[in-house]
């Protein structure tokens, strides 16, 4: 018998972003697995629980919180991520075998969309090498979609491409045209020319949502201050932004 796992995209923070397909998957699930990232991110698990309470028609499901292994901050970045994924895979494999019946249905609720800067699918591929599982993916509203909707802007210029990248890559390679930047803890937009346009958002889709737009020269430092203040108050921050070079 094969354990089934749903990977359910739950959107960028607003429960109204949860799709009808996701609701059906929620109601098909017996055990929800969530990573415990410490007290500062308890509200992320709380929101997942709230989504289940809102959309699941017949209670009886369980939440299993798994310890998130630490990730090395020094040394080779890719190797550190690979080691972190391997440690997570070992924890998940043990949890599936101990918490989920051989023919049971489990799920991970992925923030935003599981295909975009999320490790769940890669780790499940590793787990499938040692545990008999099958999994499907339910797409969700991404932070990118929420960002452009809240700012009421198109993602791309007419006939032009858009790069989706990270703060690390922006610092290393610079900006050409339009780029969405995620996973940026260092406000890397400040290295862009001051006339670069920026549309920034944090905690998108939640009551704590923050938005700002303008040029890097006009509001770059203001965004950095808003970000630092919000992180200090909440203990964590999730933000993303769209950049457009002046000549695009």
Q: How would you describe this protein?
A:
This is Precorrin-6A synthase (Deacetylating). Keywords: Cobalamin biosynthesis, Methyltransferase, S-adenosyl-L-methionine, Transferase. InterPro entries: 4pyrrol_Mease, 4pyrrol_Methylase_sf, 4pyrrole_Mease_sub1, 4pyrrole_Mease_sub2, CobF. Pathway: Cofactor biosynthesis; adenosylcobalamin biosynthesis. Residues 4-219 form the Tetrapyrrole methylase domain. This protein is of the alpha/beta class. The protein has two domains: 3-138, Tetrapyrrole methylase, N-terminal domain (Cobalt-precorrin-4 Transmethylase, domain 1); 143-244, Methyltransferase, Cobalt-precorrin-4 Transmethylase, Domain 2 (2-Layer Sandwich). Helix content is 35%, strand content 24%. The protein contains seven helices and ten strands. It has helices spanning 20-27, 42-55, 77-99, 120-127, 143-151, 167-173, 216-234, and strands spanning 3-9, 31-36, 62-67, 105-110, 133-138, 162-166, 178-182, 197-202, 210-215, 239-244. The strands form two sheets. Strands 3-2-4-1-5 form a five-stranded parallel beta sheet, with helices on both faces. The protein has a five-stranded mixed beta sheet with strand order 6-7-10-8-9, with helices on both faces. Helix 3 (77-99) crosses helix 4 (120-127). The longest helix is centred in the middle third of the chain and has 23 residues, at 77-99.
